[in-house]
Amino acid sequence: MSKVSIIGASNTKFGAFVKKNRETGEITDTKSYYDLLVEAGKGAIADAGLEPKDIDGIWIGSCSPAKFINQEHIGPLGLEVAPDDFRLIPTTRTEGACASSSLAVYNALYGIESGRFSRVLVIGVEKMNMLNTKDMTHTLACCSHWPTEGVSGMTFPMLFAEYAKGYQKHYNLTPDELRKMFAHISAFCYKNALENPLAHFGKGSPQDKLGLQTAEAILNLPDTGKGSNPMVAPPLRLHDCSLVTDGAAALVLTTTNEAKSISNKVVEIAGIGQATERLQEKVRPNMHELIAGKVAVQRSFDEAGFTINDLDFAEVHDCFTINQILCTEALGLSEDGRGGWDYIDGRYTPEDTCPINLSGGLKAKGHPVGATGASMHALAYKQLVGEPIGLAPKKGTPETGVVFNVGGSAATNCVTTLRRIK
Ligand code: COA
Questions:
Q1: Is the CB of 239 under 6 A from ligand 1?
Q2: Residue whose CA is closest, atom 12 of ligand 1?
């Protein structure tokens, strides 16, 4: 059985594509979900050097479009990428919270491996900014275990605050030590994103204007007022939270055998791993590590025949700064309990043997939840074919990379190990 490869990718600009009337609260769309989906889909097909008629299946990952923009039944929207050519094509929509479009990659891969599909378009898309903060927060909370979490007011910052508290307790960290670790990580992501032209918080953004590319600058911010770093869900503050973003990304997949004959830019999915944790946080064995995430990593590495030492860069799911630490440890880049200290020590920059989140991550590139997995794969693909969008590893064009995308409160864990073939 041939493995599956990526032969084209595209990522829209990420941002908040709305106009908000502060007096009335009215929100006007300036770039719709539909436009973002079509732009990403067209872009990936063009990047692959194919025509829409070459595609025989579409998978779309989206987290909660019904609540964000009143749109359900997403599969058929894929046809709008090329209405004449795509009419009557099979389509599937996948949902796994913030890992929705990594699940689209996962399922499309099986579609190709089975022999039923030969060239597939995968799209991830989300439009989060049509809702005010309260309704957006409620929508995301629907990805928690509603009867025990969402219903009692648990938000996503609160759910990841439980991991932050669990980590702090297990490793006996002082509040100042934890805060310093988090500040280093957000500054690290803000700095990387300045080079990413597609980033939500790139050049000219609020964090750029405030000069938040050092931990010291973040630690010096006041607790309240304009330009502050208020507590959102203790111990997580504003600058520990990922952004509320609109955007889409897409990929074209085919068998590696076919990819080699039709493309000069082939990145193989060398290994793919998925592992699911129980949805309720309270029933998990501990809250200081990503137990299922570690299993997903191992499954992906085993299939690829890789160890972490074989990898040239990683894109990890920093939905909150604590999760960047947990992902770094789950990958085996940092020893358990050392992740935060390693960031303080200046590791994982472009100069490192395995840089992390060169894109700026979810913290600064942005986190349009259902689009994030596809976006991580798209930017990793561009990195591996020597067309980086933003920063690249200093040691030269990478040959291998890993994408670690997490859905919900680390319940759905998807890890893809990638290798450039040509
Ligand atoms: N990080 C840094 N700055 C942020 C930010 C974030 N996550 N969110 C908003 N800001 C900034 C804005 O740019 C704005 O700056 P300005 O006053 O200089 O223009 C200011 O903070 C207020 O913006 P606003 O949009 O009113 O913030 P908000 O209160 O509506 O949202 C959060 C802040 C933290 C609630 C929101 O960003 C959030 O919920 N993030 C997490 C999203 C999430 O849970 N995703 C799923 C993860 S699993």
A1: yes
A2: 206
Distance CA 71, CA 93 (A): 13
Q: Which of 18, 131, 133 has most ligand 1 atoms within 8 Å of its beta carbon, as the pocket-test mutant?
A: 133
Task: For 147-201, write each residue's pLDDT tens digit.
Answer: 999 999 999 999 999 999 999 999 999 999 999 999 999 999 999 999 999 999 9
CATH code for position 120: 3.40.47.10
Would you call 16 exposed, middle or buried from its count of C-beta atoms within 10 A (0-12, 13-18, 19+)?
buried
Q: Which of 98, 143, 189, 327 is catalytic?
A: 98
Does 362 fall in a domain? no
For the chain, the domain total comes to: 1
Measured in Å, residue 244 CA sits from the centre of ligand 1 at: 7
Of all helices (H) and strands (E), which one includes residue 166?
helix 156-170
Residue 369 alpha carbon, nearest atom of ligand 1: 46
Query: Global pTM?
Result: 0.98
